[in-house]
Design a protein that fits this description.
Number of strands of chain A: 13
Largest interface: A-B, 84 and 84 residues
Strand content of chain A: 5-15%
Radius of gyration of chain A: 21 Å
Number of helices of chain A: 12
Order of helices and strands of chain A: HHEHHEHEHEEHEEEHHHEEHEEEH
Helix content of chain A: 25-40%
CATH superfamily of the largest domain in chain A: Type I PLP-dependent aspartate aminotransferase-like (Major domain)
Oligomer: homodimer
Shape of chain A: globular
Mean pLDDT of chain A: 96
Low-confidence stretches of chain A: none
CATH class of the largest domain in chain A: Alpha Beta
Structural class of chain A: alpha/beta
CATH topology of the largest domain in chain A: Aspartate Aminotransferase, domain 2
Strand order of the largest sheet of chain A: 2-8-7-6-5-3-4
């Protein structure tokens, strides 16, 4: 047997694992330190009551002979896919069919597994900085990669690739930058993809944070996008499902990829937990929607507080309006990892080093507004001392 | 963008989807027909009460600020991995470490995704007949495939490959044959893999059905297997988790693949539902174990009833002792799909056509003892009329 050398040769230390390890080592050396975690993008507020109640009912059903559910469809229960169309797409004038929506255990799996649809020689464009999984998935398959720098010079808006690329990962609202694309900026990408016969894998995990009616929530709001875009969506950051595991991906038939993705999922995936799907369904009830909105508003206010606080301390800080992330320049003389170590050592504050998101992330760190409000306030106070 | 032509060229109609479609078409034409489903290997008994209670508690925790859980480790909570070692491996004298156990959303995902560990030029051996995902996963990656026929002539025991192969999928107790391997037969495969530097992907989804102390439950009961085998396990067929989604896979460090699998999972998987993991944990309590044993015994008795019933009707039937499946020869003049259609049309009984499991499955159908007991009795009565 020969191993996949692309996978074997990857440098170890997935960004968030490395942060966990450094934080753990610090805590072990300083058992009394009260560490404030503003790093990993994990939500902190509990699940809304309507979702908890729906999952209790689902658990109860699973214990009764008449209501027990075994395998569901690999692409998810039709009632959840219908609710997604009715709530996420139809109101925005986007016309999709039930079989173009695929329920999964989360955006993380789909963003990785979708790459199986494509030839291994395809060239991939990845924003720099970006969520590490896009680059890592590309490297594991041995595909050539093109980085699209997002820097203060281009106002953190990536330029179209100068060479032709086959696959483009876009994430808006952006992680880690906290930026969004205007309708016209997004339309440029759709035009590029149509002209170059490229496919856009659009990560919409943070769409619930958009605060302006001018910013598209879905790439399918752009005419012509259905032929060239796959959209990956998540309940993790909206309904708080990071530990529940449920998301969905839209693969329009117009891409020519819907049947292939169905075949892939029917072979290598056995469907999403019935309990998780019932939880997701409750996100579309009036009570569920209201509770989720309350949580999002809370995180948005935390983001505002962090953004203002960092700026008052003299930091150059970006994002944090239509996204839960603040992208913050580190003081002169520091790298993003040395500033991470400084904050951990002197303030017991954990952030995310920008360099972990790509070369253009060097010189920045990311703060997450998913953190507890009181931790953010405390972190700003400690940083003021620094 | 170019598509993965291996995936694109695959014939459509995953076996179980095709069965569902034919059954649905029949039901629509005959709305009053009471169809008895002895086909798909899905369990029918509800979740045991101790598992239901544990999942209720987990759901409750998720709704409270102090006990809410977000992202877990990609390879699962340590308490579940420890319980797996303590209950499944240590009592059998198998020494593994916590980081060699990976919790997942089920064996289906792992059996598909594990293929990413290997070079695409590796040759793969697949039992014929077998669970379709092994072959389909291999074809999707464009790997050469060698079939190992299991026929009445070789007593349904596959011979070692005549050419060298890199990867070997073994499933014991076997789906669809219902057969097991003796310790010595399993040891032959471990020797083969060691001599040929091959890797065995051992699907142990049905180990709970083994009734004889002589039959190994885990391939690691064979000395030397840790260097050459990955073991994929499931709660689906033991604890009834087909709709809950939780399983685990053992990748020993001695295979040289453990770090690669961890890297893959940390990139393309975001961990298993906390609620599902709590459910799996309850499978190891004394109450959970007792309830699961009751269910397994029930299915074993159903298998016995089906096996005896089919033989009394004059069918050549195999398996059904250490496995929930009966492998049954179709009457002369029929193919496995024409016999499927006959049973559906004349008896309103759904079985699984053997040809769907590979060329050597032609001439056979599979009956599943996961079906309701009364459905099996009724099916045998209708078949007697036939």
């Amino acid at each position: 047997m020969n191993v996949n050398t692309h996978l074997q040769q990857m440098k170890s230390g997935y960004l968030f694992t490395e942060i966990v390890n450094r934080t753990k080592a610090y805590q072990e050396e300083h058992p009394d330190a009260e560490i404030l975690r503003l790093g990993v993008g994990d939500i902190t507020r509990p699940l809304p009551a309507p979702i908890v109640e729906a999952m209790h009912r689902a658990v109860e059903e699973m214990g009764q002979p008449d209501t027990f559910r075994g395998y569901g469809l690999e692409n998810g229960y039709a009632w959840l896919r219908q609710a997604i169309l009715d709530n996420e797409y139809t109101p925005r004038g986007i016309d999709l069919t039930l079989d173009e929506v695929f329920i999964s255990d989360g955006a993380g799996s789909d963003l990785g597994n979708l790459s199986e649809l494509f030839d291994v020689r395809n060239t991939v464009a990845v924003l720099d900085p970006s969520y590490p999984a896009y680059e890592d998935t590309t490297l594991m398959a041995g595909r050539p990669i093109v980085f699209l720098p997002c820097t203060v010079e281009n106002n953190f808006v990536p330029e179209l690739p100068k060479v032709r690329v086959d696959i483009i990962y876009l994430c808006y609202p952006n992680n880690p930058l906290g930026t969004v694309l205007t309708r016209e900026q997004m339309a440029q990408w759709v035009r590029y993809a149509r002209e170059n016969k490229s496919i856009i894998i659009f990560d919409a995990a943070y769409e619930a944070f958009i605060q302006s009616p001018d910013i598209p929530h879905s790439i399918y709001e752009i005419p012509g996008a259905k032929e060239v875009a796959i959209e990956v969506c998540s309940y993790s950051k909206s309904a708080g499902f990071t530990g529940v595991r449920c998301g969905y991906t839209v693969v329009p038939k117009a891409t020519g990829l819907q049947a292939m993705w169905l075949r892939r999922q029917c072979t290598k995936y056995n469907g999403t937990s019935y309990i998780s799907q019932r939880g997701a369904m409750a996100a579309y009830t009036p009570e569920g929607k209201a509770a989720i909105r309350t949580n999002i508003t809370y995180y948005q206010q935390t983001a505002q507080l962090l953004l203002n606080g960092l700026r008052q301390l003299g930091y150059e800080a970006y994002g944090g309006v239509h996204a839960p992330y603040i992208w913050c320049r580190v003081p002169q003389g520091y790298t993003s990892w040395s500033f991470f170590d400084l904050l951990l050592d002197r303030c017991q504050v954990v952030c995310t080093p920008g360099a972990g998101f790509g070369p253009s992330g060097e010189g920045y760190v990311r703060f997450s507004a998913f953190s507890k409000r009181e931790d953010c306030i405390e972190a700003l106070e400690r940083m003021e001392q620094l």
